[in-house]
Write a structure and sequence with these properties.
alpha+beta, Aminopeptidase, 6 strands
């Protein structure tokens, strides 16, 4: 559902050994600023319904716009767990940057 004024980010990650050091935050800040310079109005992405990834994006102002029920069940061969809890649904988040 991308348009000329909307960009979707996929598969964002940093190595576990550098997580918590601000590298991912600096990268996302750069991407958001660069997209703003290119007149992109909105950035969208998907993540699990809980965990540090969700709070990471929320700190940048991303808001939940949609829930994709059973996404992790339907699209992965093996269950995905985080802190002992299984991911089922995906949250679609958006940030208006223009």
């Amino acid at each position: 559902m991308n348009t000329d004024n909307e960009i979707e980010l996929f598969n964002i990650a940093s190595l576990p050994s550098i997580q918590g050091q601000g590298v991912g935050a600096a990268l996302l800040e750069f991407v958001i600023a660069e997209l703003g310079n290119r007149k992109v109005a909105r950035v969208v992405l998907g993540t699990g319904t809980f965990g540090y990834q969700l709070t990471f994006y929320q700190r940048f102002g991303f808001r939940v716009v949609h829930v994709v029920k059973d996404y992790f069940l339907d699209n992965y061969n093996e269950p995905i767990y985080e802190n002992g809890l299984q991911h089922y649904d995906m949250l679609r988040l958006a940030l208006n940057i223009e």
